Amino acid sequence: MDFSLSDDERMVQEMVRDFAQTELKPQAPTLDREHRMNLDNLTKMAELGLMGMNIPETYGGSETGVIPYSLAMTEVGRACAATAVTMSVTNMVAEVICTFGTEAQKRKYIPPLCSGEYFAGSFGLTESTAGSDLGGMKTSAIKEGDYYRLNGSKIFITSAEYAGVIIVWAVTNRKIQRTRRISAFLVEKDTPGLSIGKAEEKMGQRGSATNEVILEDCLVPAENLLGSEGDGFRIALMALDGGRIGIGSMAIGIGLEAIDYARDYARERMQFNQPIASFQAIQWQLADTYAELQSAQLMVLMAASLKQQKKPFTKEASMGKLLASESANRACYHAVQILGGNGYIAEYPVERLYRDARVTTIYEGTSEIQRLVIARHILGAF
Ligand SMILES: Cc1cc2nc3c(=O)[nH]c(=O)nc-3n(C[C@H](O)[C@H](O)[C@H](O)COP(=O)(O)OP(=O)(O)OC[C@H]3O[C@@H](n4cnc5c(N)ncnc54)[C@H](O)[C@@H]3O)c2cc1C
Fold first, then answer.
1. Which among 288, 296, 285, 204 has a CA at the least distance from the CA of 252?
2. Fold (CATH) for 7-120
3. Catalytic residue among 57, 212, 364, 368
4. Per-residue model confidence as pLDDT tens digits over 194-208
5. pLDDT, tens digit, for every residue of 40-99?
6. Does the beta carbon of 210 sit less than 6 angstroms from any atom of ligand 1?
7. What SS3 state is found at 382?
8. Are 77 and 254 in contact (CB under 8 A)?
9. d(CA 309, CA 187)
10. 31 C-alpha to center of ligand 1: Å?
11. E strands of the chain, at which residues?
């Protein structure tokens, strides 16, 4: 077993680190304070090939692979989590279309996602009655000739206000079993009947927009159905498996950034005539945090490696996302603790990182849902 990165993987990691540290990191506090995304950053990232990392070059992707994608997400997560989540969802949308789309859908929607012509893609799954339980979905799609008429609303949709295309899940047949009721549609941003609601005020990742999406007699061409009617549930679960690699990788980046800052601070901060790093209480917090983050990263990379080899990776992606998001939150907790009062003050970055890390145990499936997925794989039918 060889844990070292290939030359290509290291090259991508270094290229993204350089970009993220010089371009994204200096802007992160301002974007957080002003609650806004810098769309120029998204364009630059598309130019670097970061918006379609698992997409073949034929469709405009950079085809760098899943491990480089994970490494890139960690680097962007370190620098600016709000930008990282936008990158993660856009990659996920492009991949869903690439996996389930017709040739015409792939040619129409993937190149603008990868090139930056669309600033982002959005993933419209969650509703007020359907969060962890997709079966509670109420948005409907009724076939009328060459169109589907969509009615309903989605909440918490990342990037919706600047996305070029939104994948919208809706119930196409209420009378059949829950897992076959739902279908997925490609809805372009200017489709009549589609409107984007207000951006939510959030605890963290404030630079990313999180909007309501409203569908009122929104007529979507039947050719924009992804896969077949009833495939929506399967498409969502497969997309989320990949998405969990992205969010897990980002969470590791947030945790590492916080604890690296705390480590450097502990070397400098003098109390009782010595650096606080000399106290065992501080050393153990650092040791536990690095051990946890590094093992979580290995798990996420294992999921990425399985995905890259086209092997099943659902359980490993859930394990990686669970460990990464929970350990990132603990890392930020310890970073704040090590900084003492300064940790709580916005002038120091760990305050923002703590807020940014919090949502990683919630979206793309909560920690409880990850445990449910893992337990199902371990227990099987009984
Ligand atoms: C900033 C942000 C961005 C988001 N972006 C998107 C996006 O782009 N697209 C999108 O579709 N959604 C998005 N979401 C929604 C997110 O995926 C959901 O919030 C998440 O899946 C949880 O659903 P919920 O909020 O309805 O919580 P609920 O499902 O109501 O869960 C509440 C609590 O109950 C627990 N729970 C629920 N069911 C079970 C169970 N069976 N066993 C044990 N515990 C359970 C949960 O773990 C949680 O602790 C975003 C959310 C946020 C906050």
1. 296
2. Butyryl-Coa Dehydrogenase, subunit A; domain 1 (1.10.540)
3. 364
4. 999 989 999 999 999
5. 999 999 999 999 999 999 999 999 999 999 999 999 999 999 999 999 999 999 999 999
6. yes
7. coil
8. yes
9. 31
10. 25
11. 120-124, 140-144, 147-158, 163-171, 182-188, 194-199, 210-221, 225-226, 270-271, 274-275
Say what the pTM is. Answer: 0.97
Asked about 364 being catalytic, the answer comes back as yes
CA–CA separation, 354 vs 340, rounded Å? 14
Q: Are residues 154 and 212 in contact, defined by beta-carbon separation less than 8 angstroms?
A: yes
Question: Mean pLDDT of all residues in the chain?
Answer: 97
pLDDT at 258: 98
In whole angstroms, give the CA distance from residue 370 to residue 360.
Answer: 12
Helix (H) or strand (E) segment spanning residue 240: helix 232-268
Report yes or no: 339 and 262 within 8 Å, Cβ to Cβ: yes
What CATH number matches the domain at 234-379, 1.10.357.10, 3.30.460.10, 1.20.140.10, 3.50.30.40?
1.20.140.10
Of ligand 1's listed atoms, the one at least distance from the Cα of 200 is 1
CA dihedral 68, 73, 78, 79 (to 10 degrees): 100
The burial of 4, by beta-carbon neighbours within 10 Å (0-12 exposed, 13-18 middle, 19 or more buried), is given as exposed
The predicted-structure confidence for 25-43, as pLDDT tens digits, reads as follows 999 999 999 999 999 999 9
Residues 307/310/311/313 CA torsion (nearest 10 deg): 30
Centroid of ligand 1 to alpha carbon of 129 (angstroms): 10
Question: What is the residue extent of each domain of the chain?
Answer: 7-120, 123-228, 234-379
Report the CATH fold assignment for 123-228.
Butyryl-CoA Dehydrogenase, subunit A; domain 2 (2.40.110)
